[in-house]
Specification:
The protein is of the alpha+beta class and 110 residues long. 23% of the residues lie in helices and 41% in strands. The strands form 2 sheets. It has a 3-stranded antiparallel sheet, with helices on one face. The chain has a two-stranded antiparallel sheet with strand order 4-5. β2 and β3 form a beta hairpin.
Length: 110
Amino acid sequence: MAEAKKVHLPVLVEKDEDGFFVVECPLLQGCYTQGKTLDEALRNIHEVIELCLEEQKEEIVEQLDTIQEFSYHVVSVEINYQGCTQIHSGGGEVLVFMESFLNIEFIELL
């Protein structure tokens, strides 16, 4: 029987527009879940990680054990919307993008 090893994996958490917490493990493809509370979402991601690890090839799981350090960085970007049409409706402003593109410019590392 193989010896169990504890591996620390990063997870990203974001709160969506409906108030749910969405959690994903970026190192494992398709490894994401959600919960009404942060605690529920974190409990759920533990279960999903276990399922994802069961499906992964053994060499990929072994590579996870070699990761020494994770870092998280936030960058600031400026987004300029070009080629959009503004339509005003009774309740507020609505942007409609027709044949438009985004011009994103890197500003700084926070």
